[in-house]
Amino acid sequence: MTTAGDKKPHSTLEAALTGPAFEKRIKRRNIKDKLVKWGISIGGIGVIFSVLLIMFFLLYVVIPLFVPASVEQHQRYDLPGGHAEKTLYYGVDEYKSSAMRMTESGKLIGFDLADGRIQLTEDLPLQGQSITSFTVVNELQNLVAFGLSEGGILFAKYGYQISYPNDQRVVSPEVTYPYGKDILQVSDSAIQSLAIKSLDEEVRVAYQTKGSKRVAIKSFSKTESMFNDSVSLEEDSSVDFESTMIPKWLMLDGSGRNLYVISKNGTADYYDLSDLEAPSLLQHVALVENSEHPTVIRFLLGDYSLMIGTDKGNVHQWFPVRDNDNIFSLQHIRSFKVSDSPIQSIAIEKGRKGFAVTDAAGEFKLYNSTAERHLATKQVSQGAAGLVVMAPRSNGALVETQDGELVQYDIDNDHPDVSFSSLWSKVWYEGYSEPTYTWQSSSASSDFEPKFSLMPLTFGTIKAAFYAMLFAVPIAILAAIFTAFFMDRQTRQWVKPTVEMIEALPTVILGFLAGLWLAPHMEENLPGFFALLIVIPVGVILFGFGWTRLPKSIRNSVPLGKRAILMIPVVILLGWFAMQMSSPMENAWFNGDMRHWLTFSAGIDFDQRNAMVIGFAMGFALIPTIFSVTEDAIYNVPTYLVNGSLALGASGWQTLIGVVIPTASPGIFSAVMLGFGRGVGETMIVLMASGNTPLMTMNLFEGMRTLAANLAIEMPEAAVASSHYRVLFLAGLVLFIFTFVFNTLAEVVRQRMRRKYGSL
Amino acid sequence: MKEWLNKGEHWIWLSASTVSISVVLVLSLLAMISYKGLAHFWPHPVYEFNIGSPNGDTTRILGELQETKNKVVVEASGLKTLIPQYLIKMGNRDVFGIDFKWVSSENVQGKMDTLAKDPVVIERYEYGNVYGHFSSFTLNGKTTNDPTQIRSELQVQVAKGKALHSAITSIEKFDMGAVNKHIEDLRFEEKKLRIKGAFTPEDESRLKAERAEFQKTFIAYQAEVKVLYDQKETLGEVAVAISNGQVLRVPVEKVVQFWQPNNMNYVEKLGFFFSSIGHFISEDPREANTEGGIFPAMIGTIVMVLLMTVFVTPMGVVAAIYMREYAKDGLILRLVRISINNLAGVPSIVFGIFGLGFFVYIIGGSIDELFYGYALPSPTFGTPGLLWASLTMALLTLPVVIVSTEEGLSRIPMSLREGGLALGATKSETIWKIVLPMATPAIMTGLILAIARAAGEVAPLMLVGVVKLAPELPIDSVAPFIHLDNKFMHLGFHIYDVGFQSPNVEAAQPLVYATSLLLVIIIVSLNLGAITIRNRLREKYKALEN
Questions:
Q1: Quick check: A759 pLDDT over 60?
Q2: Which of the residues A228, A636, A710, A750 has the least number of beta carbons within 10 Å of its own beta carbon?
Q3: Which residue among A564, A620, A728 places its CB closest to the CB of B353?
Q4: pLDDT at A8 over 70
Q5: Average pLDDT, chain A
Q6: In 3D, which of B14, B4, B7, B16 has the Cα closest to residue A654?
Q7: Could you give the C-alpha distances from B2 to A708, B5, B7, B46, in angstroms and in order?
């Protein structure tokens, strides 16, 4: 019994530590351990990757912006209707399934784009006249007009009908006559050049008859029929004048108020038609160089910019620009060197400021004017390429070749309007008097030129951060110096968390206070806020000096370590005093109202929500970041360095400047970097207190729009995968890189400093 | 003095004063928010005064004094006078068109601080407050004219009205809402079957029967509500003589509460103060968020933050354990650590656009296509909502949790781990049973800091799910109780929206201060909690480290 009793624990232990059950358990535990190891490793790496994913995702969204357009040949067949006749115009439907060709002799040939099968042939009701000139009245509506041999004008409009027999979409082209099938007789002789614009209530026609220097302008009012949709035209006014040359092209812009008369060697007369009775010649200018001759002239989308293709293979862009005296003149904006052979044809994109060009060497090229971007080149044929047109959605093009073929291209070109230069350089936008940095991402009109310059936003971001740092850095660093070096433990214990509490305050609250409380108060007491900057430092120094003159018993009652507490009432008093100075100062120097004085006497623009408000409010938010890191750096300077310096007779401040600050300077540097990084990315304060106007001025009294605030404003409205959306992501990426660089810099410096202290 | 300056003494004074400036700024900011936030709940006295106009007419005004400003007028002689301008909250928006009026003291005839006698303030569900004097009270055709009696009768009726109001809300919101949800589900079920091509006549009749059943319940509820509404209408009507002499008739059903501030004693005022705070926290906003409470914003914030915690805890802890316990120390790990540290400094709006682009449009869009095809084109998860907001916030706060947990893990002495291993425990057992329990305070600290950050962050939320007015709470009594695809309200966004987008900024400002105060209290106490835990933790392991 006893032996058994003695043996039993031993044998149970033995049994527990050997045998199949034990082995199994060990195995199970080891498997579990392995599983956990793998689980945690995979999970951990997964989390780390998902964190890094952010950067790659931003890149993934941004990259398509910079991918060139792809142009693929889709079909190639003989020109429907034969190539004996010159084509004047192609109308293409939205689905790229059918098209209509209009020829010189007035034939209308509708065909299937897939195979060139002719669906419809019709003749224009020319009533015996022949076509002598042609103009596109409205590119978006496919409204065109023909000038005729006996002085008539015929309007025609390309359109299409969609039907769904057997659930299949069938598009059939058609031609309608919006102003009736009757010919509008304006003259007796053949119309050689013609320009027409259809405005809200009138149709404005400019024409020149064969061989004449005279240009006639007629305005027809539109009258809608009471019975059906038809519109009839009735002559309102008519005027003609002698031009300085025989015109080859007449170009009437979208407003109908600017007429450009252009000769065959490229000189242009710019007429102002604001007063229809008396057109005035504003400018006589050569659009091309001496040796150059224009071959094609088209308006860019919006009928504002002239695109002049030349025999030297250049495309020049000109548009009217207003100077300081409010006088318009045509200005050369930019040129595109397309090729060395003459330009054959220019097609414009409907919906963006892009254009396609064909040249005599048989090349087809795609450009965007705003972004000055060459997007694609395609060899169409060995011989010269002819007329080119873009599909309505800019996703395809039709090109004629010299040897009578029609080539259809599929184009994938989602973001032509963004390029490095349009993002970061000055761009001369339509209607602007000079090249500018402008951010204006959207507008109600369809022929809008998006302005995606990140410069004003980046500038605003740096401006906001700069003014905030101007306020935060001196306060935070000086405060950190005092807290770390002079303050006693007891006070430090509550001062440090108090200052660091700012970091925890939601910035939306700071922004709200800055926008709704600080901004109006600052506007009212502007001189007071400036007085603060002088009164407080001077007052503090005077108080300090006065303190040394006090009897010793009083002086010793407040030790150095508690001086910050002593200063609290002093600072409050000085602040109150500065604010009281506000209106006397206003009366003495600024005629009673500094704001008024700034605007009218000093010529400085003033917004209520301005950089000064941001400086105070965001500066306040940055104090804890800078304070905390600086304080740590100074506090960690080894005491024997300090003691050595003090023992050698240096004063407290001398020790600080000579020994402590140099040792801690990398830490202070990284604190400033961190603060700047935070200032750059701060969103809510800027959003609520800066006015959000994308300006490019360092003016303290004007607002700004920062990258971050811009994201908050525009991101919810941006259509997914649009250029706007991707440019916003690019702005996010810029912010990301900005802060990442600053933070890494700070981190590296801090780690190096830690190593250095280790050696000390 | 020169020697004094040479020694750099003035710099010491300046640096001391910068500390004071920082402290003064923080404390005065907190004091201002507290004062302005709390003043909103205090029953302000109602003043009465006459305002003259140039043509000799005088207007009587009754209202609360909201703000005083001084206008400086410089006369030709250079003499300068300050003329106080008063902002008066005079209410009665339905009569006057505006709630607030600036009055110049020049025009005030007699004294400015005359307390009106027995004025009554009635808070209504629409058109804001009424300021005036009791004129009469009509109930069931019986009219009372005695102010004391009006007061007591009105009190009873308003209490009844309140009960009815909450009964109606509960039926409309919860019961009828649930029925609506069921009917909507049936519609989706039909659509789903149709897409599959498996819609049989049996299904049709079954669905029809179910729908009819629900509709019947719905009609029953409607009838029930109708009865309550009818009861509400018979609660009577109080007539109030307002300042321009007009008698304004206010049906009791429109009254939220009423009080007579000038007749209250200190204790009553204090009671009113606390009950107003209670209303503020527990009620829905009214009148485009410029009146009423912030209950849905508070619930939205809490639910979002809790959901975020559910996501961020495992992610952060697993990543930290991997980095500290499993990964090999080296250059890569150092780089990863720097990256994660830096991520804490990446602007929050960048996380917002990531959330919108990745979670909402890519992940959410795919989920919709895979599982909610029947509801397209109206998106279910392919639109900003609670789930994406909390995931985005989880990513935003991940660095905080990782760094804090890692720090906690690094503080645990190696000897403890070695002890565990020496006793035969596997590595995972050591981590699970010894290391993690000791690190919990550190993890808690990280989580609390993460929660504090998430509760105060607004910018990313504006992109991924916050709205100014959500029709439904993200949690309710209808299965699955928490609606991940719902949009929600948030305290921080509420401040931005009411303060900057509201049509009636003056009326809204006190409310914004009150909301700010609440948010500050929540966040500061979370932070203080984190600091306390951290300090306690440090004390606890100090002994172990030595």
A1: no
A2: A228
A3: A728
A4: no
A5: 87
A6: B7
A7: 48, 5, 9, 60
CA distances from A439 to A61, A452, A733 (A): 20, 5, 17
CB pairs under 8 A between A and B: 311
| Structure tokens, B375 | 């509801």
Tens digits of residue pLDDT in A352-363: 889 999 998 889
Q: Count the helices and strands in chain B (H runs, E runs).
A: 18, 13
pLDDT in tens, B304-347: 998 999 999 999 999 999 988 888 888 888 888 888 888 888 89
Tens of pLDDT, residues A670-692: 899 989 999 998 999 999 988 88
Q: For the structural domain made of A70-439, what CATH number should be given?
A: 2.130.10.10
Question: DSSP alpha helices (H): ranges in B234-381?
Answer: 266-282, 295-321, 331-343, 348-354, 365-371
Q: What is the pLDDT of residue B33?
A: 92
pLDDT value, residue A85: 85
Write out pLDDT tens, residues A708-756.
999 999 988 888 888 889 999 999 999 998 888 888 888 888 878 777 7
Question: Cβ of A506 and B15 within 8 Å?
Answer: no
Compute the distance between CA of residue A460 and CA of residue A705 in angstroms, rounded to an integer: 5
* Ranges of chain B with pLDDT below 50: 546
pLDDT at A556 over 90: no
Instruction: Provide CB contacts within 8 A for A77, sequence distance 6+.
Output: A115, A116, A405, A406
Q: What separation in angstroms does the CA of B193 have from each of B140, B207, B368, B370, B423?
A: 56, 11, 17, 15, 61
Query: pLDDT of A179-202, one tens digit each?
Result: 888 888 888 888 888 999 988 888
Closest CA to A108 of A93, A123, A118: A123
A679 CA: distance to closest CA in chain B (Å)? 9
Nearest CB to A515 within list B20, B345, B500: B500
Cα(A480)–Cα(A474) distance, integer angstroms:
10
As given in the structure block, the two tokens for residue A284 are 């006589």
B248 touches chain A (CB under 8 A): no
User: Is residue A694 a contact partner of residue A460, using CB atoms and an 8 Å limit?
Assistant: yes
Residue numbers of B between 425 and 444 with CB closer than 8 Å to A: 426-429, 431-432
Closest to B10 measured CA to CA, from A113, A496, A544: A544
Task: Report domain extents, chain A.
Answer: 70-439, 455-759
My answer on whether omega of the bond before B377 falls inside 30° of 0, hence cis, is yes
Judged by CB atoms closer than 8 Å, whether chains meet at B323 and A44 is answered as yes
Q: Is B168 on the interface with A (CB under 8 A)?
A: no
Residue B70's DSSP bridge partners are B84
A508 chain-B contacts, CB cut-off 8 A? 456, 458, 492-493, 495-496
Rounded-to-integer distance, Cα B347 and Cα A680, Å: 8
Task: Write down the pTM of the prediction.
Answer: 0.88
**For tokens 């600091």, what's the residue?**
B531
Indicate the angle between helix axes B9-39 and A455-481, nearest 10 degrees.
Answer: 110
Q: Yes or no: say if A158 and A175 are a contact pair by the CB < 8 Å rule.
A: yes
pLDDT on residue A2 = 46
From chain B, pick out residues whose CB is under 8 angstroms from the CB of A683.
347-349, 458-459
Segment A665-669 mean pLDDT: 88
Q: Which CATH superfamily is domain A455-759 in?
A: MetI-like (1.10.3720.10)
Q: Is B260 helix (H, G, I), strand (E, B) or coil?
A: coil
The torsion angle over the Cα atoms of residues B484, B488, B491 and B495, rounded to 10 degrees, is: 150
Q: How far is B201 from chain A (nearest CA, A)?
A: 27
How large is the ipTM? 0.88
